[in-house]
Amino acid sequence: MTSDSAVDAAIAFVKRLYPPPRRFDLRLWDGTLLPGEAGSTFTLRVNTRGALRRMFGIPLALSLGESYVRGDFDFDGDPWAAAPAIRAYADSLRSPRDAAQLYRLWRALPRDDAAPIPVDAANIKAEQGSRQWDLEGIRYHYDLGNDFYNLFLGERMVYSCGYYPTGTEDLDTAQDLKLDLICRKLRLEPGERLLDIGCGWGALVIYAAQRYCVRALGVTLSKEQHSLATQRVAEAGLEDRVTIRLQDYRDLREEPFDKIASVGMFEHVGGERLPQYFEHTFSLLRPGGLFLNHGISGRPSSPHRLRGRIAEDLNELLVGSVKFRKRYIFPTGGLVAVSEANLPAEQAGFEVRDVESLREHYARTLQFWVRNMDANREAVVRTVGMAAYRLHRIHLGVASWQFMTGDLSIHQTLLAKKDRGRARVPWSREDIYK
């Protein structure tokens, strides 16, 4: 294929994949510029001759993600702003005829002489659903290094969404407000015993001990988190009130706790194992105790199960969004709708007392994280390498867009273990927001 014919093939493919009005400029590897027709918001730069072919292989989202990580293309601006324009390729795939036309044009795209650079993926060797499988999945993601996470998460290193009651708070303020919101929803009292399942770097147990005078236990499967959380407890002078354990929550067999929190952990459990998750947390709680379950929510399953499963399977075959997340980010995780999560909680014996969506709050938090990562780009690359920087940048940035659009959500559910029919919560939520 000559240089001119390769460019012609690329132009024909792009014009069919993104018919007018395309909302971004596209610059090919040889400098050819294809201006957008709708007031361009950014420029997508194709870096190599064979990049377009790799970028738009099937499944599309997986191929685009891998291509970005390996450096096949770049774009100006924020990922959450670019994502909807790039994902507009879905408008060109509305029928089998559309797909066939695009496939013919894609096959005509030029290749690179060199093989594409591979992207390292999770390699979980344990049996799916086993404890070792959980352990390997957690350590794949969280043991990337404390220095890496410290470069973008903020002062307390809280790896979950902040809380922005006015929408103007900075990241560190929002994380303090989120920790306090959890403590107030749990109605923590001095001297109570608090369990934090999946405690991360210890932010919640330290905050609760300092501000609410509780005794707290945090458990995590991450060696890196356990090490730094233990150090932070000692630096805060809280060793007499806060303990961090490298332990699976399912191995806890001790005196029941007054209150339990799980923040950003139950996504790692997956839908099929949620009954066991709630049954065990129920057994760890005193009668009258409260459990705050905070986690990312997916979309509900289709009421037409067979039709819904076929549609989901076809989407993963063609698009592959979940494939990317499972292959490179959370290999052992799974998302369910909040309604599908709360049902097994009720079946385990809990009473649902309060449900709150923080969807917009997570979109904003993710944007802070990406901007922190970009501001510390050189240090991030020195710490984990360019591929890991690009991987997490695109993951967090696209996730922000998914929270903005409602493709993803996040909910805090307050669950009560009744004491002879009584749930020990006030008659209104006024105390939470004073």
Write the H/E string, N to C. Answer: HEEEHHEHHHHHEHEHEEHEHHHEHHHE
The geometry reads as elongated
- CATH architecture group name of the largest domain: 3-Layer(aba) Sandwich
Instruction: Tell me about the largest β-sheet.
Output: 7 strands, mixed
How far from one another are the termini?
69 Å
What does this structure look like?
With 434 residues, the chain is α/β, with parallel strands linked by helices. The chain has two domains: 3-107, Nonspecific Lipid-transfer Protein, Chain A (2-Layer Sandwich), CATH 3.30.1050; 131-433, Rossmann fold, CATH 3.40.50. Helix content is 44%, strand content 15%. It has 17 helices and eleven strands. The strands form two sheets. It has a seven-stranded mixed β-sheet with strand order 7-6-5-8-9-11-10, sandwiched between helices. It has a four-stranded mixed β-sheet with strand order 2-1-3-4. Strand 1 (25-27) and strand 2 form a beta hairpin. The relative contact order is 0.12. The mean pLDDT is 92.
Task: Provide a compact summary of the structure.
The protein has 434 residues and is of the alpha/beta class. 44% of the residues lie in helices and 15% in strands.
Task: Spell out the key features of this protein.
Rossmann fold; four-stranded mixed β-sheet; Nonspecific Lipid-transfer Protein, Chain A; seven-stranded mixed β-sheet; alpha/beta; elongated; 2 domains; 434 residues
